[in-house]
Automatic annotation (TrEMBL):
It comes from the Bacteria. The lineage of its organism: Bacteria, Bacillati, Bacillota, Bacilli, Bacillales. This is Pyruvate dehydrogenase. Keywords: Oxidoreductase, Pyruvate, Thiamine pyrophosphate. Its cofactor is thiamine diphosphate. One of its GO terms (molecular function) is pyruvate dehydrogenase (acetyl-transferring) activity. InterPro entries: DH_E1, PDH_E1_Alpha_Subunit, THDP-binding. Residues 23-319 form the Dehydrogenase E1 component domain. GO terms for biological process: pyruvate decarboxylation to acetyl-CoA. SUPFAM superfamilies: Thiamin diphosphate-binding fold (THDP-binding).
Amino acid sequence: MAVEMKARVDLSAERLLDLYYQMWLVRYFDEKVDEFFAKGLIHGTTHLCVGQEATAVGACAVLEDRDKITSTHRGHGHCIAKGAQADRMMAELFGRETGYCKGKGGSMHIADVEKGNLGANGIVGGGIPIAAGAALTSKMKNLGYVVLCFFGDGASNEGSFHEAINLAAIWKLPVVFFCENNQYGMSGPAKEMIGVENIADRSKAYGIPGVVVEGNDIFEVMRVTNEAVERARNGSGPTLIEAKTYRWKGHSKSDAKKYRTKEEEQYWKEAKDPIAKMAARLLADQAATGEQLEELRVKALKEIEAAVKFAEESPMPSPDTITEDVFA
Ligand SMILES: Cc1ncc(C[n+]2csc(CCOP(=O)(O)OP(=O)(O)O)c2C)c(N)n1
Ligand SMILES: [Mg+2]
């Protein structure tokens, strides 16, 4: 594989195929959520990350098991990429007892602390100070883990972003700020809402490196994230990464997408599909055959279908547990 990276990251053909498989898992998970939400079988709300698979999978691919992430309201991909089980995630969305929050949390409250996922977050920008705090713990207790903090372009306008990034910079905390710039915060175009050309340029205000990356190219995402993780781990402090990407679906459950054009959507789907891009690269580098890639796609679809079956067959939480595992 012609990817320049520190030896620590396993880029064997086997591993790359697993990452390709994970991208399909993420895509099919959210496609199924879309389908079952429309059928009225998933309640609350959901934010889908179809089209953004390379950021979730690529960034998590260069982390160690002990490293941690904080996620967002659009977090299913992050969760799967950090090692969560699709069946327990789907059960959570279906409100079942077997889900990650025993069916009481839903899409925006899934956490998987055992795997280092400190949780999704319904507060835009809410995960950023949590990431800085977890990184401070790592530093003060000398635990050696790095925190990768996912957030959106919209979140980069929140006070929490600026406060947390400043503290992380002056204290040289082991954190990587990873912005998924999917071009919109709800209906607000990032280019109208942000006064600098690149969100990564904001790093200058905090004295840390800022990097823009093609977010639909998993190899590029892995390369820049790996560098930032190394920096964080060796005590050099945070990096701000801005990955340019696009969400194929609407913001959340009902969105007529009047703020963008069909042509723009077509462009991102046809010319910049992250899964197709990875497939093309694997084939060009002869790291996989077309048959292998097709097998992995089908295997991922089956795994997600099994996750739906698990969710549908799981019991609803019993009413007498209603006051358990909740704060108030
Ligand atoms: C503090 C806060 N303000 C507003 C909202 C409503 N809200 C939910 S998602 C969203 C847009 C976030 O945009 P971005 O950070 O770019 O993430 P994306 O949805 O594009 O993934 C907003 C404004 C919220 N949940 N929390
Ligand atoms: Mg956005």
